[in-house]
Amino acid sequence: MSEELLINISPMESRVAVLDNGILGEIYIERHHKLGLVGNIYLGTVVRVLPGMQAAFVDIGQSRTAFLHVNDMQREPRPVAEKNKAAKATKHEINEDDATTNAAADSLAVTPPIVSAQSTEIVPASKTLIQHRLHESQRILVQVTKDQLGSKGARLTTNISLPSRYLVYLPSSDHIGISQRIDGEEERSRLKTELSSLMQTVNLKGGLIARTAAERVPVDKLEEDIYYLLQLWRTICARRQEINHHQSSELIYQELSLPLRSIRDLVHADTEKVIIDNTQIYEQVRYFAKEFVPFVYDRIVHYTAEQSLFDVHRVEDDLRDALKRRVDLKSGGYLIIDQTEAMTTIDVNTGSFVGGRSLEDTVYKTNLEATHAIARQLRLRNLGGIIILDFIDMLEQQHKDDVLESLQAQLTQDYAKTKITQVSELGLVEMTRKRTRESLGQQLCEPCSTCQGRGFVKTAETVCFEIFREIMRCARTYNSPKKFTVVAHAAVIDLLLTTESDTVADLEYLL
Ligand SMILES: [Zn+2]
User: Fold this and answer.
1) Spatial separation of the C-alpha atoms in residues 231 and 308, rounded to whole Å
2) Is 110 in the same domain as 223?
3) Which domain holds residue 107?
4) 344 C-alpha to ligand 1 centroid (Å)
5) Structurally, how many domains does the chain consist of?
6) 453 CA to middle of ligand 1, Å?
7) Which of 337, 341, 451, 507 is the 20 to 30 A CA-CA neighbour of 42?
8) Is residue 440 part of a domain?
């Protein structure tokens, strides 16, 4: 499969389109006034501890306070020196401040110097309770794992993770993990062995995960990544020390901008071209690629033609279609995609039947075609969470199995983790897709103010009757005023003067 990356920069936003064989597969949009926070690391301030929810609100300098659950907090710091001392000491003497100093002395310690310190009164058994680990106005190093969505504040973790091209560094873990998408025991164990020996060589403490891109990557490339991460983590620890006495919550590490992130994460051997329509970003990306992703350096192209980059590649059209409810299939069938707060439903429909073939056959072919369209739309719209698929009913078991198998095969192309959980008695396919960012719809749209997001507007008759009720309510409340002025849409006025003129007359009489 040939892939191209188009990077479109305007003063308002950066957009990255991934084209698979010339067709838009994924789109990433970053609005400059509203940069996503995921991946950012802050020195935050605990605003409130909620023992009932085992969570805390943490100020990270955003409009809404962010949310930290105890499950997203790293385990208690137990450096080796500390463990030995703890063994000898009575439990009241275990002082977490010591642990903090230890960690700070070695900026690459297992635990960054972050946690807790209600210190001396704590007995170890209760340490996992959030009220024993955090207190109001405490300073704490946190990373955003989910952007604020709707009315919910951003979600935080104290388990910091720093991605590079091939690896993810986890300062507070001691585990070496391999992406599940890397197959083959041999390759997995090679990565494991090489990573743990590299960590020892450069004296990097903590855990590492080999990302999918690490598959069959030579050891010197992995080493470069480890050095980069080592350097990055040192900088973060130093910055944390430097601003520890400041009053306000502060950003310590900002995730790379979208164009650079896409070079780090989206580019691979099959990427034929990266086309960028902005000189400054082009230079930035080239510089970054030279440092971290050299193989793509020569494939980066500066686009300077008159016509807009996204128009030339029909991205604007596909983007417009990706916001519609209805997706047409080539066979004449179509999908209806509805996203609600709780879930997304996708309904498959046959169009008008074309003669000759049997109904079952038409249905079967439409469903098969739909599996491709569904997988594509999930990716393109970045729909996450619970997804319910309503295929058209089929009679033959073999057809049902084929459709499910085809869906499964299409979903494996997805970079996001998906899982078909079950086929219900009614034939609904229930699945999940991992959600990290807002969906395209959430990012670009808002509920319709006319219908309050219902997708329907009231009929003129309904509005008429509301006006009548409102007139009666006013008459009761304000003791029969002499005159009402009704301002309404022309269709409503029409109705008032024609079909409903009797009711208007009745009201005049009644009031
Ligand atoms: Zn509406």
Assistant:
1) 39
2) yes
3) 41-250
4) 18
5) 4
6) 6
7) 341
8) no
